[in-house]
């Protein structure tokens, strides 16, 4: 007898029509502007690590140095053993670059977000009489915030302790805040949203937080070390995140090209998060050599702004070229390119054709987005050659014509 | 004594508060999803407010059964 039958996993997998969805293809070698999947090389528009950093920073050498000096594992909780030097230096570096008093790192960005929500809404009591009682916290979040935030909010009471406002609509946020009567309100929004590449109306969101006395947390996973300088888009939003947001979440797997995440904010809160987040204390940390290499990479990105400047120009060029061939993209100035396709079947057909022709292009279709609002979501890669970009544009144009789009 | 019209008016006010849909649009024949374009997240918020206001309990599986505004009004009236 199959004791797993009540879970219906087999039927679930069988019902899936996309054969690769549950058994991911096997990738050999490093992922970069190209990727070798199941033995085939594809031009890669799916990598969330997009700066081709090895050209500028000897990341792998830094990693090896970190491994030799600090070992491969923290070998336990920072609360019992102490915090590894590379983590301490990394956290100070993140605090400095985000303009916050302190930062705490987590093994992944997802754990940082779940830990933040948990820390802001938990109650704890210790024998010494020390206690926090924050179960009465009310969260107000953009509907399109990352799954990790929603996962963190899952056990809370939606409609009472959790409310959502329409994606990027400040007037809806204001409406929700107007009707909430609570002493502890936390508003969560993202800078650049992964699904559509848009930048949230950060300044206006922070204005509403000020107006209603709410605490703000901006998930800057996609913007960290990309936006900020005046010559780049979204300098105003980046300045507001730095100067006005109470908390900011950063990811080390996007611009930094490694793995891990952190929450930065006021010192007392971050110190409390050591215990209250749960996802710091009860799980593994970033590996020490990764923490070491991340800190070195952040410093290089800050010291050599041309790395990101050149990348953003490269991404803007691809966007412009798409518009020149009458291919609409979601209106945003970010480096992410979302190309609305609409029909789910057409989008899935396109994905297959792209792979056949040597391109890896992520397709978001139902249920990732609403039915028949499928889109291509591309990350231009700093290592793409002009030939690869031109080839991709020609191929996309051919498909659009073939499908009558 | 609260009658169905009172329930409808109060429900319409809640729907407007949660979704910004004009309360005048909230009439008994309207479908929450098809006519008023209210999604599942907003339905949860509406349900919570209805429960608080009318001191009733609407289980999750029951919410899915309340297709129209009229369904919801009848359900609330019967629970009271």
Coarse morphology of chain B: globular
- Quickly give the CATH architecture of chain B: Orthogonal Bundle
Mind telling me the CATH class of the largest domain in chain A?
Alpha Beta
Mean pLDDT across residues of chain B: 90
Classified in CATH, the superfamily of the largest domain in chain A is: Type I PLP-dependent aspartate aminotransferase-like (Major domain)
Helix content of chain B: 55-70%
Q: Biggest sheet of chain B: strands, sense, closure?
A: none
Question: What is the number of helical segments of chain B per DSSP (H or I, 4+ residues)?
Answer: 4
List low-pLDDT spans of chain B: none
Walkthrough of the structure:
The complex is a heterodimer of chains A (405) and B (80). With 405 residues, chain A is an alpha/beta fold. Chain A is built from 14 helices and 16 strands. A 7-stranded mixed beta sheet of chain A has the order 4-12-11-10-9-7-8, sandwiched between helices. The model of chain A has no long low-confidence stretch (mean pLDDT 93). Chain B is mainly alpha-helical and 80 residues long. Chain B has one domain: Non-ribosomal Peptide Synthetase Peptidyl Carrier Protein, Chain A, CATH 1.10.1200. Chain B starts with a helix and ends with a helix. The mean pLDDT of chain B is 90. Chains A and B meet through helix 7 of A and helix 2 of B.
């Amino acid at each position: 007898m199959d004791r797993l039958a009540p879970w219906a996993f087999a039927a679930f997998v069988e019902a899936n029509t996309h054969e690769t969805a549950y058994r991911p293809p096997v990738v050999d070698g490093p992922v970069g502007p190209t990727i070798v999947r199941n033995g085939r090389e594809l031009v890669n528009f799916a990598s969330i690590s997009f700066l081709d950093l090895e050209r500028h920073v000897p990341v792998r050498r830094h990693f090896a140095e970190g491994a030799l000096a600090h070992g491969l594992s923290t070998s336990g909780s920072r609360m019992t053993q102490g915090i590894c030097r590379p983590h301490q230096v990394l956290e100070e570096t993140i605090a400095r670059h985000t303009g916050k008093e302190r930062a705490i790192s987590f093994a992944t960005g997802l754990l940082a977000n779940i830990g933040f929500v948990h820390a802001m809404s938990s109650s704890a009591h210790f024998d010494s009489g020390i206690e926090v009682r924050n179960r009465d916290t009310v969260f107000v979040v953009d509907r399109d915030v990352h799954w990790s935030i929603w996962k963190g909010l899952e056990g809370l009471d939606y409609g009472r302790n959790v409310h959502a406002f329409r994606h990027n609509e400040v007037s809806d946020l204001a409406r929700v805040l107007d009707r909430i009567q609570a002493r502890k309100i936390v508003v969560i929004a993202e800078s650049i949203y992964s699904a559509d590449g848009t930048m949230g109306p950060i300044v206006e969101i922070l204005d509403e937080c000020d107006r209603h006395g709410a605490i703000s947390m901006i998930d800057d996973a996609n913007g960290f070390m990309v936006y900020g300088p005046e010559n780049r888009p979204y300098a105003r939003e980046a300045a507001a995140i730095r100067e006005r947001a109470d908390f900011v979440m950063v990811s080390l797997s996007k611009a930094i090209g490694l793995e891990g995440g952190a929450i930065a904010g006021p010192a007392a809160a971050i110190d409390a998060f050591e215990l209250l987040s749960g996802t710091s204390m009860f799980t593994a940390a970033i590996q020490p050599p990764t923490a070491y290499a991340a800190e070195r990479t952040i410093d290089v990105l800050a010291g050599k702004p041309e790395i990101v400047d050149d990348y953003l120009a490269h991404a803007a060029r691809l966007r412009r070229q798409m518009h020149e061939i009458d291919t609409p993209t979601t209106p945003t100035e970010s480096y992410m390119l979302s190309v609305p396709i609409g029909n789910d079947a057409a989008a899935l057909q396109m994905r297959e054709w792209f792979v056949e022709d040597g391109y890896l292009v992520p397709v978001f279709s139902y249920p990732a987005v609403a039915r028949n609002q499928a889109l291509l979501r591309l990350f231009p890669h700093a290592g793409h050659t002009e030939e690869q970009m031109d080839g991709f544009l020609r191929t996309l144009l051919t498909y659009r014509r073939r499908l009558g789009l | 004594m609260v009658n169905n019209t009172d329930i409808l008016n109060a429900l319409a006010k809640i729907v407007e508060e949660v979704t910004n849909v004009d309360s005048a649009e909230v009439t008994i024949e309207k479908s929450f999803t098809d006519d008023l374009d209210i999604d599942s997240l907003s339905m949860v918020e509406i349900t919570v407010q209805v429960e608080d206001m009318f001191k009733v309990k609407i289980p999750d599986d029951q919410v899915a059964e309340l297709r129209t505004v009229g369904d919801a009004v009848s359900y609330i009236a019967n629970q009271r």
